[in-house]
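Continuing the batch. This is chain 6 of the set; chains 1 through 5 are on the previous pages. Same settings as before, nothing changed between runs. Recording input and output for traceability.
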Amino acid sequence: MTSRLRCALSLLALIMLLQGCVVSRVHVREATSIVEQSQPAGATRCKRADHCPTPSPLMAAAEDAMHYSTAKHPQHVVTLLNSGEAALAARINLIRAARRSIDLQTYIWAPDDTGKLMLDELVRAAQRGVKVRIIADQLFSFSDPEQLARLARVSPNFQLRLYNPTFANAKTPPLEFAAGIMCCFFQFNQRMHNKVMVVDGTIGITGGRNIEDRYYGWDPSFNYIDRDVMVGGPAAREMATSFQHFWVHKRTKRLTQLRDVNAILRDTGVQPVHWTEPVYEHPGRVAKVRRQAEDPSWLGQHILDHTLRVGPVEFFSDFPGKTDNPDRKRSLELTEHIMRMVANAKHQIVLQTPYLVMSKQARKIFLKLHGDHPQPRVIVSTNSLASTDAFAVYAMSYKHRKRYLKDYGFEIYELKPHPADLPVLTPPASDDNTAAATVPPSARQDLHRTRRRNSPAPLIETQGMRIGLHAKSIVVDGAFSMVGSHNFDPRSDHYNTEAGIIIYDPRFARQLEKSILRETQPKNAWTIAPRQPKVPVLTYINQAIGTVSEHLPLFDFWPFRYATSYDIDPGCRPLTPSDPKFFQCYHAVGDFPGVALPFKTIYTRMITAFGVGLSGIL
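Output for chain 6:
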């Protein structure tokens, strides 16, 4: 028997074994009893009915909007959170301001400083009497069953559940990961991509940010440009309702229903947990953001000064278990609303997405818009190979550049890995690096694995902090906008559940459009444009071969693509590729500028050649 056959048989046996390994009701009841006996009874740190909230100008503004709202004339306060620093401070401020409840759902919860800080703040809120509920997608969150067993006992007010766990486990080893793909791919592949936090049903935050250092500028080597919206008013109730749908859904599992966590709880028995301050890699920055979250003047300058009072705001979320009932009315709620927004555009669409891979429905809409008279202008901000940490998805965008430029009329700007005109992010100061030595080895290993999960391509030059794009936003006709978790790709359309907020206000649209367009400027992005025809006959032959190659499902290896990347010449002003003077002011810098070693470019070309059928999965 060959080693391959033995491996396949072993995997098949594992699949059959794991499919029957649901935690028995007896074991769930036993673990639940242990948790209830371990939790401190009546040991809340606050005896007041309001659970001792910290005064918050953010919450006060939301309560004011809620007070003056009516069914016919809703009132909201909305704040665009472009800065990771402000986004984290706002979250901490609202957690401390909670009086009744905090509901939080996320796709990633990492064991780094951000993950520890958020967890500590939420546990402390629960200990003063606030009802705290967390839903995290299992694939990239809380992979330590021992930690989950402790969290299950920490407070009767603290509950954590995992969405769609593979084979009812909190931790998924590589073999189980492979088994999950083989035995039940559609369920395994459907993830909860929502990022939502709601406090007291009055104010919430939603957008693209997960709970991980790189979303808040704290990673030592690679951080994201990302975006959230904080909204106070009736839309927060819609966010709370959406959370409740996920909380009670069959794919959302209690900790006692997870095989590995359940076994630990039953093995250790009744065991009270004494919550202590986490050990941070960089405690200085944690202390700083906590001070900012309590400082009314800092909050005023960095958050409230940019807050707008608006009217109608809508929160949309796909239904949990999206792939189970794709025809159910709410299953694709956000996707369908985005498509209607785009289809009704008359003048201009400004789109920002990490992954420029269009679904079939989106392709039809943009093709129709390009045939309209007049044609709406479509500006797209996305990643380059040098800035992305998802090169396989980038390969699909690279494959269809001609379609995007010629058939849909896109103006495409790909982010540089070291954008010059954006705030400079620097690693934490070395004087608090000594704290990292006290982090337990197991925690450092988990953190190392998290950071290596998505490794960007090596660069020719390193110029300090490296930046990638993770924001998902759209502005239509300068009138209404959407910020959320939807990547405008087939995975977001058909597999992952997504959430987003739609704001019908031109002032907010201007704020968002300005933010996106800043990231398309020549200092920050390369322009994608057709290759300059130097030898006309050869150029036309090359384009013809490239077109045929692009439409092949396999073997799309033709290296000379229709379009390439351009950078601006010194002394020139920014121009669009349609401008007759474009080639006088821009020079080609290659298909994958900035990327050092050939491995990622080779992989990219291989995915381009063979991966067209995987676009929805990637």
